C-alpha cells in the first residue's frame, strides 16, 4: 500500500483527531513527524498483509508453552459492604460516590 505523495493516509486532520482522542497536545513539528511515522507503520502493515502463508503453518502464540493455570472459584469470607463504605469519602449507602470521569468535549 504505497501511498502516492498527493494522497497520504496519515493526513494532518487524521493525526489531529488521533491526538485529540489520545488527549495529547502535538505542536506542528510533532504532527508532521507523527504523520510520517504513521505512514511508515501503515506501509509496514501493508507489506505484512501481502505475505503468503501456507495452510499447514500453525499459529504462533508465544515463545514458551503456557498452561491455563486458572484455579477453581472458591467462596471465602469477605469484609462487609458497610465496613468498606465506612472508608469512602462519600457514598450513598450502597456505592462509592465519585465525580464524573468522562465529559463530552465535542460541544
Q: Which segments are poorly predicted (pLDDT under 50) over 5 or more consecutive residues?
A: 1-6
Task: Report the portion of residues in β strands.
Answer: under 5%
Strand-pairing-aware structural class? mainly alpha
Distance between the terminal alpha carbons, to the nearest Å? Answer: 36 Å
- Percent helix: 25-40%
Q: How many H/I helical runs? A: 3
Give the CATH architecture of the domain at 12-49: Orthogonal Bundle
- What shape does the CA trace take? flat
Reported for the largest beta sheet, the result is:
none
State the name of the first-level CATH class of the domain at 12-49: Mainly Alpha
Mean pLDDT: 83
CATH topology of the domain at 12-49: Histone, subunit A
Helix-strand string: HHH
Number of strands: 0
Gyration radius, rounded: 25 Å
Describe the structure.
- Helices cover 35% and strands 0% of the residues.
- The protein has helices spanning 12-21, 28-49, 81-85.
- It is mainly alpha-helical.
- Residues 1-6 have low confidence and may be disordered.
- It starts with 11 loop residues before the first helix and ends in a 22-residue tail after the last helix.
- It has a domain at 12-49: Histone, subunit A, CATH 1.10.20.
Short description, anyone?
The protein is mainly alpha-helical and 107 residues long. The protein contains three helices and no strands.
Q: Topology, please?
A:
Blueprint: H1 12-21, H2 28-49, H3 81-85
Q: Which key features would you list for this structure?
A:
107 residues, mainly alpha, Histone, subunit A, 3 helices, flat, disordered N terminus
Amino acid at each position: 500500500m504505497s501511498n502516492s505523495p498527493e494522497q497520504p493516509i496519515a493526513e494532518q486532520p487524521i493525526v489531529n483527531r488521533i491526538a485529540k482522542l489520545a488527549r495529547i497536545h502535538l505542536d506542528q513539528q510533532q504532527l508532521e513527524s507523527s504523520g510520517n511515522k504513521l505512514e511508515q507503520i501503515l506501509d509496514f502493515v501493508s507489506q505484512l498483509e501481502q505475505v503468503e502463508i501456507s495452510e499447514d503453518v500453525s499459529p504462533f502464540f508465544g515463545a514458551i508453552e503456557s498452561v491455563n493455570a486458572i484455579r477453581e472459584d472458591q467462596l471465602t469470607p469477605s469484609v462487609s459492604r458497610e465496613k468498606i463504605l465506612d472508608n469512602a469519602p462519600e457514598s450513598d449507602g450502597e456505592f462509592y460516590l465519585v465525580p464524573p470521569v468522562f465529559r463530552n468535549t465535542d460541544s
